[in-house]
Amino acid sequence: MYTDTHCHIFKDSYENLDQIIKELAENNIKRIIVNGYNYKTNLEVLELVNKYDNVYGALGMHPSYLDEGFDESITLIEKNINNKKLIAIGEIGLDYYRSSENKEKQLDCFIKMLELAKEYEKPVIIHNRDSTQDMIKTLKKYQLKGIMHCFSSSHEVANEFIKMGFKLGINGIITFKNSKLSEVIKKVSVDDILLETDSPYISPEPYRKYQNEPKRINEVAKKVANTYKISEKVLAEKVEKNLLELFDF
């Protein structure tokens, strides 16, 4: 069974949220990690982890939503940091693709989140888009472990993150016809990857025209197993081991 290490299954996106979670096991999913990206979704993460045994959470602020309750989210994290179902600080990071005009603000907020993770000894779940040099430079100062969410960069960049103690979050992008991600991850060990969906986004082939769900992680796994020329059973065992190196469940 797999763990979806990164999804955003919130009320605004799903009318059948309870059903999706209740059917995880029959869809070959052991657990999911729901990532908050602003104050509103951070509150929903708390609701979900307290309601469902197979739902774990990360509280954070996506760099594109820094005006949607950053200070409140800091307070919320500190207040709930001892909740055993909250296993990471995330989704946090930098995104110069959507906005490069507020780089200073993004970096300042990112650093505050990293300092929080350092203080409370929590792994981090990182968003990085068109900001790799600043990302590497910043992360090197903190010596944290975690996941590089939605990894889709080069082998050289992959090695940089792996050397710092990060696993690569692989999702539906690897199934896209024009994706070169399979060629990249072939060059790194299966010991350095984790699986995710980023639901409701990035639906894998052959479901790209549909809203994504955690159960689509099976399509991602199929492609990853084929890339490494191992069985899906072996892949499931490998990524579970990788996961337990980062998180306490």
Q: Could you write a compact summary of the structure shown?
A:
This protein is an alpha/beta fold and 249 residues long. 39% of the residues lie in helices and 18% in strands.
3D architecture notes:
The protein is α/β, with parallel strands linked by helices and 249 residues long. Helix content is 39%, strand content 18%. It is globular, with a radius of gyration of 17 Å. 43% of the residues are buried.
Query: Which strand order do you get reading across the main beta sheet?
Result: 1-2-3-4-5-6-7-8
Roughly what fraction of the amino acids lie in strands? Answer: 15-25%
Percent helix: 25-40%
CATH class identity:
Alpha Beta
Structural class: alpha/beta
Distance between the termini: 15 Å
Radius of gyration: 17 Å
The tally of domains stands at: 1
Output the number of helix runs: 9
Q: Fill in the CATH topology.
A: TIM Barrel
| SSE order | EHEHEHEHEHEHEHEHH
- Give the tally of β-strands: 8
Give the integer mean of the pLDDT values: 96
Give the second-level CATH assignment, the architecture. Answer: Alpha-Beta Barrel
The coarse overall form would be globular
> Major sheet: size, sense and barrel closure?
8 strands, parallel
